[in-house]
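Deliverable D4.2, example record:
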Amino acid sequence: MLKLLNKFKQKKKENYVFVDQLSGLSIYDIWLISDKNLFVIAMANRIAEKCNYGEQINYLSPAERVIFIVNTLESEVNNGGISQFLFNSSGNLANEVSAALKSIKAFNTELSYTQLLQLLMTQLPTDRLERNILLDKLITEDIEDRFEMFDQWFNQNNENIEELCYSFIMEYKEQFK
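Output generated by the structure prediction step:
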């Protein structure tokens, strides 16, 4: 484990993050990671693996579920924007995002996300096909522009989601097994 962590520290110095190498670690090894960012990445990977990437989300404790939802939102928005989050299977969690963001105290992100969803003026179905059909009907050019604005804001947001996740995990560490 120490060799692995030293390797991470070296790669981090070189501005590389090998997320795949943080997968498959035991929960005991994850708790030994002192770097907060690497710890959150490793914990998020473990949680995703534990619930089969959302297929078995009910296997998670309430706190693990919060981290899974926040990490899924962040990953999808950083990768392809809020549209990607909503249209992909990750959108099954769309109605739980606000509560998860409040749980970690990401209040600015929660407010922005809630305002964005209010543009759609309806609760989104958890079924992906139903949600996609509804989104295709509801999303206008104006809403697409607002989605783009959200993506830009999200990428420039000064709310440190990783730090907030770390604090949340430390507060509820008994739920992370």
